[in-house]
């Protein structure tokens, strides 16, 4: 249990096991949105810590930005030499998945794209008598609102078709979903004695103002007491 829970607030883990790059990106996004965040290094990676009462706001913000960035598998990772002999069907499925991962990673690098998922639909038959079905590709993009528009869809379809020689342009489907940018909204503030402060500083500001008022009243009381003593002394004299 955290000490001084009512004053400072308890910190909880927002994300764990992040590498240095991902942790820096997440921390920077939170700080720029006015959400205090710290990094904590552990054995398995870096954890991001935020105040418990700001946990939901932090999650919503990072989801709108697609952070932490999704890690896509590379061809080298999927085709590493594990000493096992794979069947032709397994090799084909693995290669197909590797191509979809590389396409997803390429589309995710486009400015304004929060998340990209590519699925390649391709039937493989070992029988020469089966009629081949033309392959197709479906693309799901989550983009930031106002940054990337649907006018880019033809260019995305062309990119996918050119990266897969067997796929025709008309057999590439693209769905674009927009996400509101939470970071564009102003950070929340509260009014404390006519001063607008971040909610995380509300308790400290109230304590400071209370101390100032208490000090002022103490000084006034001491002044009044001294004045009374002087007045009584003059009367006695």
Task: Indicate the topology.
Elements: H1 5-8, E1 11-18, H2 20-32, E2 37-42, E3 45-51, H3 55-65, H4 75-78, H5 88-108, E4 113-121, E5 136-144, H6 153-163, E6 172-179, E7 190-192, E8 195-197, H7 202-236
Parallel strand pairs: 5-6
Antiparallel strand pairs: 1-3, 2-3, 4-5, 7-8
Explain briefly what this protein structure is.
With 237 residues, the protein is α+β, with helices and mostly antiparallel strands.
Summary tags:
single chain; 237 residues; alpha+beta; Alpha-Beta Plaits; GMP Synthetase, Chain A, domain 3; 3 domains; 3-stranded mixed beta sheet; 8 strands; 42% helix
Q: Can you give a write-up of this model?
A:
- It is a single chain.
- By secondary structure, this protein is of the alpha+beta class.
- The chain has 3 domains: 55 residues, 2-Layer Sandwich (Alpha-Beta Plaits); 98 residues, GMP Synthetase, Chain A, domain 3 (2-Layer Sandwich); 45 residues.
- Helix content is 42%, strand content 22%.
- The protein has 7 helices and 8 strands, in the order αβαββαααββαβββα.
- The strands form 3 sheets. It has a 3-stranded antiparallel β-sheet, covered by helices on one side. Strands 4-5-6 form a 3-stranded mixed β-sheet. The chain has a two-stranded antiparallel ribbon with strand order 7-8.
- The longest helix is centred in the C-terminal third of the chain and has 35 residues.
- The N and C termini lie far apart (63 Å).
CATH topology of the largest domain: GMP Synthetase, Chain A, domain 3
Strand fraction? 15-25%
N-to-C span: 63 Å
Shape: elongated
The name of the CATH superfamily of the largest domain reads ANL, C-terminal domain
State the order of secondary-structure elements, H for helix, E for strand.
HEHEEHHHEEHEEEH
CATH structural class of the largest domain: Alpha Beta
Count of individual beta strands:
8
Overall residue-averaged pLDDT value: 77
Number of structural units classed as domains: 3
* Unreliable runs: 1-8
- Helical content band: 40-55%
> What class do helices, strands and sheet pairing give?
alpha+beta
Largest sheet: 3 strands, antiparallel
Domain Flagellar M-ring N-terminal: 12-177
Keywords: Cell outer membrane, Lipoprotein, Membrane, Palmitate, Signal, Transmembrane, Transmembrane helix
Transmembrane segments: 207-229
Family: Belongs to the YscJ lipoprotein family.
């Amino acid at each position: 249990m955290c000490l001084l829970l009512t004053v400072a607030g308890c910190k909880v883990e927002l994300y764990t096991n992040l590498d240095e790059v991902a942790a820096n990106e997440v921390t920077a996004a939170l700080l720029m949105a006015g959400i205090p965040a710290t990094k904590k290094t552990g054995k398995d990676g870096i954890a991001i810590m935020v105040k418990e009462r700001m946990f939901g706001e932090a999650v919503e913000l990072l989801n709108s930005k697609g952070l932490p960035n999704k890690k896509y598998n590379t061809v080298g990772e999927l085709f590493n030499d594990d000493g096992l002999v794979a069947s032709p069907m397994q090799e084909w499925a693995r290669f197909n998945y590797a191509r979809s991962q590389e396409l997803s990673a390429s589309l995710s690098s486009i400015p304004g794209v929060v998340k990209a998922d590519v699925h390649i639909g391709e039937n493989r038959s070992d029988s020469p008598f089966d009629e081949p079905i033309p392959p197709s590709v479906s693309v799901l993009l989550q983009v930031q609102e106002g940054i990337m528009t649907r006018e880019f869809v033809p260019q995305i379809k062309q990119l996918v078709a050119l990266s897969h020689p067997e796929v025709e342009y008309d057999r590439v489907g693209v769905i674009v979903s927009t996400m509101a940018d939470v970071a564009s909204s102003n950070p929340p503030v509260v009014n404390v004695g006519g001063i607008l402060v971040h909610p995380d500083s509300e308790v400290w500001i109230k304590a400071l103002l209370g101390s100032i008022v208490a000090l002022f009243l103490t000084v006034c009381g001491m002044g009044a007491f001294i004045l009374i003593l002087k007045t009584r002394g003059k009367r006695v004299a």
